[in-house]
Amino acid sequence: MTPELTIVMPCLNEAETLATCIKKAQSFFKKEEVNGEIVIADNGSTDGSQKIAEDLNARVVSIPEKGYGSALKGGIHAAKGKYVIMGDADDSYDFNNLLPYLTKLREGNDLVMGNRFKGGIKKGAMPFLHKYLGNPVLSFIGRLFYNIKIGDFHCGLRGFSKEAFIKMKLKTTGMEFASEMIVKASLINLTIAEVPTILSKDGRTRPPHLNTWEDGWRHLRFLLLYSPKWLFFYPGLLLMLLGIITSSALIYSPVTIGNITFDIHTLLFTTVSILIGFQFILFYGLTKVYTVENDLLPKSKNYDRQFKFINLEKGLIAGAVLILTGLTLSIIASTNWYELSFGDITNSNTLRIVIPAITSMFLGVQLILFSLFFSILGLKK
Q1: pTM of the model
Q2: Checking CA distances to 69, which of 35, 41, 156, 262 falls within 20 to 30 Å?
Q3: Which of 62-76, 108-122, 208-222, 324-338 has the lowest mean pLDDT?
C-alpha cells in the first residue's frame, strides 16, 4: 500500500542519535496506526549511519550534492507518502509526537510549521544568539516582507503534502532552504498552519552543522533577494520623495534652519538622492520581470498589466521629454551665463537652473535605457 506519511531525516554523520530518532518515528506509526515510511537522506556520512538506518528498516537515499537543502530535496523527492514530515536526526525533536502535524495536514493544510517558542525550548537546546537575536529578527523580517503570520521561520520540524512541495519548486541547497519553503508557500498562496513544538538539546557530542553567522546571513540574503519590493522599491521611493521635497525647496532660494543655511551645494546632494532613488526603482522593475520570467517568483495579478502601462513607447516618450526639458533649462542657464559675460556664476541663480537641467537629462537617459532593457526582458510576452 502507498504510505500516507513519509518522515524524511537529513543525515550527515548522525550515528549517535539516528537510531533513537528512527525508533521514535516507528513508535509513532505503531501508536497512531499510521501507514508510514522513514527515509534517511544521507549526504555522505562516513560514520556508519547508513547501516544503522538499514538495520532498522529505514530506507536510505544517497544524496551526493552537499548541503542541508540538497539532502532534504533528494529525500522528499524519493518519498512515497501523500504527506511528508521533515526533521533533523539529532534527537532535538520528538518524532514520537507528530500527530498534531498529521492532523493539520489531514485537515487540508499545505504546510504545517512547528513553533518552538510556543511549544518550549529546553535549557541548552538553542544558543543564546539564535534564541534572542537570530530567529526573532529573521522571523520578523519574513513576516514583514511576505505577510506570513507564523512565529518561527526556522523550525526544523515541519510537514507538508507532497503535492504542495512539487508546487513550491524549491531551488536553494543550504540552510536557507527552510526560509525558501515558507516564502514560496506564501507566494503561491498555499495554506500554512502552525503547531507548538518542543525543542530539546540534541544528543550529539560533536558541534552542530549550523554556522551561526554564515547561515544566518544566507537566510537574510534569501529573504532580501526574494522581495525586490523591500530591497529596491521602498528604499528607492523614500529616497526619491526625500530628494524631490528638499530639492523643490532649494531650487527657489536658500533655506535657513537656525544658524545653518542650505544652498546650492546641498541642492547637489538632494538631486543625487532623486537619481539614486530612481535607480533603485528601475532595478525593482527589472528584477521583477527577470524573476517572474525565469520562474523564480510567481506571477502576480498585476504583472501583465505592467506591460500595458509601462512599455517601450511610453518610456521613450517620457525619457525624451525629460531630456528636452533638461536641454531647455540648459539653454536658459547659458543665456543667464551670457548676461554675466560668461563670468563667475557661483553667486548667481544660474546653478539653480543648471543642477535641475542635468538631473532631468540624466533621468531621461536612464528611463530610455530602462525601457529598452525592460522590453528585452519581457520579450516572451
Answers
A1: 0.78
A2: 35
A3: 208-222
530639492: which residue's cell? 247
Interval 168-207: pLDDT, tens: 999 888 888 888 999 999 989 999 999 999 999 988 777 7
> Which residues on neighbouring strands pair with residue 366, listed in sequence order?
none
Q: How many CB atoms lie within 10 A of CB 115?
A: 19
Backbone Cα Rg of the chain = 28
How far is the C-alpha of 325 from the C-alpha of 367, rounded, in Å? 14
Question: Letter for the amino acid at 166?
Answer: I
Closest CA to 99 of 34, 156, 153, 143: 34
pLDDT digits (tens, 9 = 90+) for 251-280: 888 888 888 888 888 999 999 999 999 999
Whether residue 381 is predicted with pLDDT greater than 60 in this model: the reply is no
CA distance 132 to 315: 48
Distance CA 15, CA 48 (A): 7
Q: Check whether 31 has a pLDDT greater than 60.
A: yes
Pairing of strands 5-11, 192-196: unpaired
What is the rounded CA–CA span in Å between residue 356 and residue 351? 9
Estimate to the nearest angstrom the gap between the alpha carbon of 145 and the chain centroid: 8
Nearest-angstrom CA–CA distance, 280 and 276: 6
> Which helix (H) or strand (E) covers residue 37, if one does?
strand 36-42
d(Cα 314, Cα 306) in Å, to the nearest integer?
12
- Alpha-helical (H) ranges within 150-233 are 162-168, 177-187, 212-225, 228
The per-residue pLDDT for 346 is: 66
- Contact (Cβ atoms closer than 8 angstroms) between residue 376 and residue 290: no
For residues 78 and 21, what is the distance between their CA atoms, to the nearest angstrom?
A: 19
- pLDDT at site 10: 94
Q: Rounded CA gap, 326 and 356, in Å?
A: 7
Q: Where are the domains of the chain?
A: 5-225, 228-377
Phi, psi (rounded to 5 degrees) for 158:
-155, 155
Span 5-225 CATH architecture: Alpha-Beta Complex (3.90)
Distance CA 270, CA 323 (A): 19
For 88, the grid coordinates are: 533533523
φ, ψ of residue 194 to 5 degrees: the values are -140, 140
308 or 27, higher pLDDT: 27
